[in-house]
Amino acid sequence: MPDDRPVDVDSPSHEEALGRLLRTLPPAPQGWVAAAAELPRARRALAAIELELAGEADRAAVTARLEAALADAGHEPTPELVRAVRRELGRGS
Amino acid sequence: MLSDAELVERCRTGDERAWAELVDRFSRYVHAIAIGAYRLAEADAEDVFQDVFARTYENLSGLRDDGAIRPWLGQLTRRLCVDRLRAARPSVALDEAAGEGTPDQRLEQIEQAVVVRDALARLSGDCQEILDRFFARDESYRAIGDALDIPAGTIASRISRCLGKLRVELEGRSGA
Q1: Structural domain boundaries of chain A?
Q2: Is the ipTM of this complex over 0.85?
Q3: What residues of chain B lie within 8 A of the CB of A8, using their CB?
Q4: What's the pLDDT tens digit per position in A8-36?
C-alpha cells in the first residue's frame, strides 16, 4: 500500500468491509482484456488463413494427381507441362 | 447501460463492440476467480482467462439463459481453474494447494464483491472513479489527485463520503 494511504482506524467497520470487497475485484491486466476483446477479429483472420491454406493444399493435391496422370500416360511431368495442363483445365472449367 | 442479456444478444449478432464490452464487464470477475480464489500463477491465470472468453464466444449461440451469463462464466472459470490445478499438482488437495482460506470462502467473497460493484455502478461517476482508484487499483492519494485534478488533501474525505453513499445504496437495495 502506498505510504500516503494511512489506514483510518476510526472508519466504521462496515465501510472497512466495503473497502475490502472493492479490493477483491481489481482490474484484469489490460493486455489480457485487449486480447480477449480482439477474439472475433482474430478468429476471422485465422479463418481466412485456414481457407488460404486449404486452397494451397487443394492446389498441391491437384498438381500431384496431374503429375501422376501425365506419368501414367507416358509423359515426364515437368513443372512446365503440369502448368500448361493446369491452364488448359482452367480454360475448360 | 445494456443488461447482461441484451449484451449477449448483441454479441450473438456479431457486434464486436458488444463483445468488447462483455469482456470488459466480466474481466474482473474471471480474473478474480483465477487469481484471487484459486491463486493460479500469472501465466496459468492468463491461459484460463483467454480460454474462458474463447469458450464463451464459441458457445454464445448455445446459452440457455442470456441473463445468466455471469453464473455461467463463473462456473466455467472455476472448472478450468480446478482442471489447471489438478493437472499441475494432482496429489495435492485443492484447499491445501490454494493457500490461506479455502477457494470456496474466497469465491463467496468475490460474489459479495460483485454485489458491491453493482451498487458502485449506480453511484455518480466521481464516486465510482475515486473508490475504484483507491481500493481496486490501489492508487495513492497523490496519483488519484493528479489523475482527477483534485487536491490530494481532499481525497480522504471524498472516499469517506462515497463509501457512505455506497453503503446507503446497498442498504436501499437490500431493504427494497
Answers
A1: 13-92
A2: yes
A3: 156, 160
A4: 434 446 888 999 999 999 999 999 999 99
